[in-house]
Design goal:
Layout (H helix, E strand, L loop, with lengths): L2 H18 L11 H22 L5 H21 L5 H29 L1
Length: 114
């Protein structure tokens, strides 16, 4: 497994676990629709991390898409002054940049081998 893909998997998995953990009971109750959406994003993110780890053809696009959605959601949470928004933004941005770099590196290596 390439080092860049491993480095992309780590923040993507961390962000996905934070998304799945969003539904845990907290003092301020969450909106049910938002909690279901965040849980679904977390599950899809774990699937994307799996695809990235297995080096599938859909792994990089899925990882980039999930990370981009997480960045957008973190920006919205930051504007709404939600707890943990800054951490979510940093981890999501790192996942997005590393996933994009892993995809670009894979594309370059594939065309060079042909």
């Amino acid at each position: 497994m390439k080092t860049l893909r491993i480095l992309a998997i780590i923040p993507l998995t961390l962000m996905s676990l934070m998304n799945v953990g969003y539904i845990l009971p907290t003092d301020p109750k969450h909106n049910t629709a938002v909690a279901i959406g965040v849980l679904a994003l977390g599950v899809v993110g774990l699937g994307a991390a799996y695809g990235l780890a297995r080096n599938t053809s859909w792994g990089v696009p899925a990882a980039v898409t999930v990370a981009a959605v997480n960045v957008a959601a973190a920006i919205i949470a930051l504007v709404n002054d939600a707890e943990g928004a800054t951490i979510g933004l940093v981890v999501s941005t790192l996942a997005l940049l590393l996933s994009f770099a892993a995809g670009a590196r894979r594309h370059t290596a594939t065309t060079a081998a042909v």
